[in-house]
Every structure is written in structure tokens, then in C-alpha cells.
Task: structure prediction
Amino acid sequence: MTDGRDDASRDPADDGGRLRGVLERTARIARWEVSRSAGTVDRKTVLVVVAILLTVGVVGFAVADDGIGLEDDLYVIAVDEENPYYEVADESESFRPIPLDDLELSDGNEANADVALRENRIAHYGDHGEAAYAAFRDAIDAYNEQRMSEEDDQTAAYPVVVDLEYVDRDLEEVGGTDGQTDDAGGDDPADSSDDLGSGSDSGADDSSGDGDDSDDGATDGDGTAGDDSSADDGQLAVPDVGSGGSLEESSGPPGSISPPFPFQSLLLAFLFVVPMNFVIQAYGSTIMDERVKRRGELLLVSPASSSEIVAGKTLPYLCGLAAVVVAISLAVGGGWLSVLAAVPIAALFLATTFVGAMLARSYKELTFVTVTISVFLTAYTFIPAVFTDVTPIALISPLSLIVMDLQGESVGLAEYLFSTGPFYGSAAVCFLLGLGVYREEDMFAQKSLPAKAIDAVASRVGGYRSVPLLSALFIPLVFAAQLLVVAVLFAVPEAIALPAIFVLAAAVEELAKSVHVYAGFARSRLEATLGVAVVCGVLSGVGFFVGEKVTHLAQFVGLPELTVGVAAFGPALSNDPLGFLVVFFTPMVLHVVTAVIAAVGASRGPTAYAIGFLTATLVHAAYNLGVILLVA
Amino acid sequence: MAILEVDSLRKTYGGFTAVEGSTFAVERGEVFGVVGPNGAGKTTTLKMLAGLVEPTDGTAVVAGHTPGDPEMARRLGFLPEESPLYEEMTASGYLEFFADLYDVPRDVARDRIDRTLDRLELEHRDRRLGNVSKGMKRKVAIARALVNDPDVLIFDEPASGLDPLTTNYIIEFTRELSEEGKTVIFSAHNLFHVESVCDRIVIMNDGRIVARGAVDEIRDAHGGTEYHVFATVDAGGGVREPAVGADADATDSIRRFRHAVDDMAGVESVRETVEREGGRIVDIQTETPTLEEIFLEVAGGSDGSQATRRESIDGSAATADGEGGPTDGTQASSDDEDAAEAET
Result:
């Protein structure tokens, strides 16, 4: 029988190598995951879901096309068809016109219409009359604007042209160096020229035919603040996020001019995140099923490795999300950039859910975990995207890339990497940590979340070599956390924001440098002696230093030019050799010292670790403050 | 030649030692029993052999491969104590999935699955597993363990919680597998099952192997066969106790006395004495200790030690051992079940 088995079974190693075997097993698990998941839903449910989706789609499309229609025929207006205002009432969705002869007045100020128009005189009746009157005034304005915009001779329609130029704030001046913040206003033509780059002929001047003054501070729309702010000091450019789609040509009265706010693009970009919140529920459940019902035991005993199992179980959800993202992108007019920006978000959603499902002890805890992930990641991606046209901080969210894509703006590779790198990196680290506890001894154990989190980290600690490696691997998480701190405290007054950022940024880094060392000691993967603690501290500090240099990618998008960016990531690299050495190498000394402090505490137990960690954080924060005062 | 060799296998969870220095070997085609009380380290040992739990120390070689090696996984069938099936799948679909995972070609897998399910008399193959009985689920789980046609099978409590009919069927099936040349590592609480199917056993207690060998060897080593010689001596219308010293067999309606001796020489000695006194031997019976009695003797005093062990077990160790469970209630229930089985 054994011989028969040997003949019949195929060996992937013989067929096409180990990699092929890995891919085959992963694909098999993925295929069966799809088939198994499909088995959980009966046909009736599928039909109901399809019907709901179709309904939502149709309604959504109708809303997108025509608006919600809440104000359709909201008011009744009595007006004759011969009246020139009849067309206004007829075209407005809010008004239902009736002939003036049908107007019936009753006691007091009541009537069967809210407003009535006789020639140029207008009267309003009843409780809604006043609101109807105001709405009719707005309808008249809108009607006039539409008529003017349809005019062939726009110069005649709009004899005055105003070019708007949105510029970045000069942060040094905002910071209080000289208190002058009005350069863009054009009070000083020379200054204005400096700040706005190649400030050239004003469109207004051209159109007015004046042509004798090119120093009024306005530009023709091509020059942006970013262009020249980089040229001024030799630093790399702040991304060109202040211009683009929001500055497209539009006509209207001055009252219709509003600051750049990519409302429509933002809403459409949000659509990319919505399905992720639902998919992680199903994904979390399938991972949890393997644990709670011990079903994963049988997969673990099979020839498939843990990573193949996890990859196979994750792939259908990742591919499904990718397909949804492509579909949304096609529907809303996005391009490949939108897809490429949305995929790392999906990957991080799945990765964090995977870790959460590996740590949760019950479906109740899993619900808490997935809701937390939904809220946190949705906020993390959406809120910065609101500021897409305002500040480079927005680029911490890949959703900003989608907004830019929808607005037709170009995105450079550095911007893409800056925006998505932490997402890719964090997703990889999360999967790595989750895989660490994807084994029998941890999967089915009933431990508290912190204890399992320590297990997950400790699973990756194996000897000295792993210590600096883990410190470096945590960099994406550190980067993401620090960016979040910056984003959250961006709008807070600097007097409060800066100290908070100093401490929080330092705490995040110290945690990344010490948590695995603590986990190693706590789970007896490292010998808890002073010597080992010092060695681990040194290695962790050096590893983190190397990884941290990656965060200088931030400079490619100009984040350190912001005060809060400096507080989080340190000052930009200087051209001065001494300054360069100070900024570049003193952090290594700092990281080593603080990592040793925390590691020594970690070797003595949880309380000592807490004390060591706090001490290291305070030393680190003090260093940050000192360096910025000295260098910046 | 041993198909499975275990040398000084050890597993610790923090300060708790679940398995301490287990060493044994299993021959090809043998049914090898692992018995012991709850928390003895049986399941941990089996899981280390299956590659599910990483040993702290020691080595295990299964079919020439170490646990965790994918090639070893292909040659091993593992049946855990519970039957964690994908209940939304059908029996056929479930088995095809695992056959696929074990690289079994589809046509071979279909044929093998059909034959195995026929042998196991499994009906309702296209019904979802969530809708079949516990016995059926167990049979599907056994079929899954066989889907890769393994050389070595590890059955951890294969008949746990099943009705007597299904239990007997599974015991018989295990014996058939052995006859076909499969090596089966068999763990059970019901010692009657172990005694009836296993060629050799190890008895574990507190993580250590405390007895090993064929059931008869262990029986000999722990009391062996006892001979009960029943004699009566005429005493003028009545009976009297022979001079050799014996217990009155009060349960018998005829007054007679029972002599317990360890061997035939002892029997002969009693016979000579009784005859010298004018009496006669009325019956000779042999009494062999059951495995259960040996087990109780070997694990004697284990109640106290187990209690101490359980106090020292943290959550992970208890769960990883597979015999603890999340609550004390589960543990107590398990113990009660064992006690009931022992009484049976």
C-alpha cells in the first residue's frame, strides 16, 4: 500500500522545485478557502445580497447623477408662464410652479402657495414663505450664473477676471521669526517675487490690457509655492499638492470662490476604504475559526507551512479587495495610481486584522479588534486626505494619492513610496508577528491580549542577530505611528503640540527598540543577565539607527520643513559637515544609550522594564529638544 | 526496524515540565499504546511526534524524517482528540481538500476516498458535515487521517465520546490498519480498548514513562498471574481451615478456603499440604490483573501529584497539552468521564 502511495503521489519538489511547491500549496489553500467560504452562504443569501448591492448601486448612481432630491418640489410658487421669472421657478428643483390664477388666499397669511410673483413683485405666505422667498432668491442667482456661463462671449459675461493663487505658508515666518506673513498678498513686489517663484504676468493684467505691471504678486497659474521654496534653500521639493485640479478655471461671482477643498474627490476616495471595513470582518472570522474550533490544527500537521496556510487564507480576501478597488477605480474615473494606492491600505487592513484575530481569545474580542481597526485605519487614511491640497502631511495617507489621482494631478515615485511605504512595511511586520504565533502552542492558548502580543514578538526573537533586525523591522510601524502623531497634533497650537510630539515620538521609538528585547527576556529566549541586556541594548540601538535613516525619506516630500515634522523626525540634513555629523551620527549614540537603559530594565522584569522605558523616553525626548535647539 | 524513534523527548512550558525524557521506539506495523492519566503528557508527546509542538529537548524521527519536515507530514496521519472539521463542507469535499493539500492526484484521491468511506460505512457523503452525527464526524476525521495513505498514524483518543457501537468499529478498524502494515500510535483513556488493540504500550505519569512493554510483560512486572487454590478439609461432619493458612471463601455456599499463590510451585505446595491434612483441592482459579489495575498501581498516589501539577500549570501548558481545557469545570468533567469509563 505504501508503495502504491509513493507511485501515485506527486512530489512538488521533483516537479518543479520548492518555490513551485509553495505556490501550489498556497494556491490550493486559497482555492479551498474560497470554496469553503462560499459554502457558508446559501443561495437565498446570495440573491438577497446581490439584490441589495444592485439597489444600492442604482440608488447611488441616481444620487450621484441627480442628487438626493430631498428638496424636489419643496415649495409652491404662483407665477404666470409669461412672467420672466417663470423659467427660474420651472428650472429650480425646489419649486413647483402653479398659475397665478390658482392662488387661493385664506385667513391671515395662509395660501396654497409659499410665494407668489406678480410681474416684479414677490410675496410670501405661511410658515415656509420666508424660507421659500430666500430659496427663490438663490434660484435666481443660480439661474443668472448659468445663463452667463452659457454666453459665447465670456469677457462680456464676466468683465472682471480674478486669478487666484494658493500658496504654502512661509512656516519660518509663521513660527514668529519676523512676524510677516503677508508676502503672498503682494504688498512688497520684490518679496512676492521671491516667494512665488517666477511670478509673471497677471492674467488679470493681460485681460485688462494694462500690461505694464508684472509685479503684482499674481501669477499665471503655473508657478506654485513648492516650485520655489525648494529652489530657495537647496532642499528637496515639497510636493506640488497645492495646485492642480482645485485651481481649474471657473467662472462666477466672487461669493462662489472657495478655498481648495477636494470634496468630491475625497468622497470618491472614501469609497475605496468602505469595502475594506466589511471584508476584514469575514477575514477575521475565518482566521478565528481556525483557532477557536481548533480547525487549524489539521492544516498545521499537513505538509503546508504556516506561511503557506496564512498566505492561502489571505490571498482570496486580498485579491477580492483588489478587484473591488479596480472596479471602484473604473467607476469613479480613477487610474492605476488609485489602485496602487488602495492596495497597500487593503493589505494593512488585512494584516492588522490577522494579528488581531491571532491575539483575540473569542469572537467578542475579535469584534472589538476589527471595529478598532476599522475606526483607526479609516481615520488614519481619511483625515489626512482632507488636507490633500493644503499640506504635505496629507501624504501620510495613500488616500491622498487617490484624491490627487482623481483630481488629475501627477504623483512622483518618492511621494508614492513615502505614502505607501509605511503601509506596505507595517502590513509585512504585522503578518510576520501574526505568523510567529500561528503554531499549535500559541494558537489555541487562552492568554490575555498583552501576553499573546508578547508571545508574538518573542516568537521572532532568536539570539542576538534577531535583536537589531527586529528593531529595524519595526521602523515602518514607528514611522506610521509618528506620522499619526504629527497628523493628530498638526492643528493643535504648537505650544501644546511640540512637547507632546517630543515625548510621544520618543516613546514610540523607545518601544520599538525595547519591546522585543523585553519579550525575549520574558519568554526566556534571552538570558536575563546584565551582560546580555547591555549587548541587546547596543544591538537594538544600532539596528534601529540603521532603520531610522530610512525615515529620512520624509525629506523627499519636505515634511521636516514643517515645525511639527521637525519635532517628530528631527531636523533636515545639513550641508555643513559638522552639522551633518551631529545630525546623522549622534542619534546612534542616543539610540544605543536609551536602548541599553530599557534593555537593562527589561531583563529585570515588567516593573523594571516600565521604569527603564520611561527613563529612556525622557532621555530621548530631552535629546530631541536639545538637538533641535542647537541645530535647528 | 523501528519506523518511529523517540529519544529523550522533553517539553517544558516556562517552569512546567509536560514531558520529561521520553524514549521509546515503535516497529513498523505495530499498534503502540500511550496511556496515562490526564496531564500525564500523552497528548503533548503525540503532538511533538506530529510536528505540532516543538520539543524543548530530545529528538524524534518518524519514517526517517524529523517532525516538521513536510516529507514527514506526507507520511503521517494525525487524528486529534477532537474532530475539528470544516462543517460547512461536505464529507467528500473536505476529504478532497486534504488530499489536495497532501499532493495526492485527484483521480487517486477520489478512489482512495471512496474506498475509505466504504470501509468506514460512511453515509451522507454529500451532506454538510455540520449536519451529520458525532460518530459520522469521527469517521470522516479518520478518513482524513488516511487520505494521504500514511505509514504512521497517530490516533489520540479515537473513540472519545462515541457510542459503544462506533467505538468498537473504530477499534476493529485500527486493528485492520495494523494488519495492513500501518503503524498506529494509539492513545485512549479506556484501557480495555488499549489492551485489546495495542501490541505494546507505555504508561505515562507526570510527564514520565513509568512502565513500558507488551501488555503481558507489564502485567508480569506488576503482579502477573495470581493462582487461587480453593481447598476443603473434612473435620467430622464439617470443614476446617487447612494448616497452610488461607482466607475463608465466604461467598461460596460450600465452606472452603482460598489460598493465593504466585506460581504453579505454590499451587503444588498447597495441594501437598491440604492432602496431608486429609483435605482436597476443590478448585484452582487464575486471576490476571487488568491493565486498569496496573495503571492504578503505577499511577498510585497520582491524585495528589496531579493536583499539584494542575496548580502549577499555566493556561498555555494546560491547553497545549490538550487535556486541560479552559476551565476547571472542563477538567472536572473530563475526570468524571474517565471515572465512569473505569467503572464500566
Summary: The interface with chain A takes residues 14, 47, 50-54, 70-71, 73-74, 76, 78, 80, 82, 84-86, 88-89, 93, 97-98, 100-105, 108, 128, 144, 148-149, 151, 180-182, 315-316, 319-320, 326 of chain B (CB under 8 Å). Confidence is low (pLDDT under 50) at residues 250-254, 301-344 of chain B. The longest strand of chain B covers residues 2-13. Residues 2-75+150-220 of chain B form a domain with the Rossmann fold fold (CATH 3.40.50.300).
